[in-house]
Write a structure and sequence with these properties.
single chain, five-stranded mixed β-sheet, mainly beta, 7 strands
Length: 173
């Protein structure tokens, strides 16, 4: 597993005139960037020399490890990321917070990939559409087996309302 970086040396482009292009294909069986695990990351991108640095544009596909919001099981979610980003060179010309090509001519696409994956993933990922989640009493994963917990049909905070329904004689008031 590659850990943390997707560094590409683009120093040869920095020595070239603006408009010079280079096409790059990537394939990583596994890649970890910060808290994100990617499986089967593939993609193609173009690096183009501009007057301000290197412009990267391309597309990546991967399976991103996420935890299901209902049962907390890790699942791999298909993710497509479109990249269009300028990496400034020299770094001193970059506005604050922008990506840069370092002095050695390396551009680390890992942080950009992390950012793109955050935007591409659903806000509440599910391992499957019919996920049953966890038992609120014992924490058992209800997708794997049923638990023996006794479930109250009604929220205890609403028990007073249930008593009103139980005491109602069924007539209109």
């Amino acid at each position: 597993m590659v850990n943390g970086h997707m560094r590409f040396n683009v120093g040869y482009l920095l020595e070239s005139p603006p408009g010079t292009k280079s096409d790059i294909e990537v394939e990583f069986p596994r890649l970890r960037v910060d808290e994100f695990n990617f499986k089967e990351l593939t993609g193609k991108f173009r690096a183009t020399r501009t007057g301000e640095g290197i412009f990267f544009e391309g597309r990546f596909e991967t399976l991103t490890a996420v935890d299901c919001v209902r049962c907390l099981t890790e699942t791999f979610f298909p993710t497509e990321m479109i990249m269009e980003e300028l990496f400034y060179y020299p770094a001193s010309t970059a506005p604050p917070g922008e990506y840069v090509v370092d002095r050695d001519g390396d551009a680390d696409l890992g942080p950009l990939l992390r950012e793109l994956s955050v935007l591409a993933l659903p806000m509440q990922p599910l391992c499957r559409p019919d996920c049953q989640g966890l038992c609120p009493e014992c924490g058992e994963n209800l997708n794997e087996r049923a638990c023996a917990c006794k479930r109250d049909e009604i929220d205890p905070r609403l028990a007073v309302l249930q008593q009103l329904i139980d005491n109602d004689d069924g007539g209109d008031n």
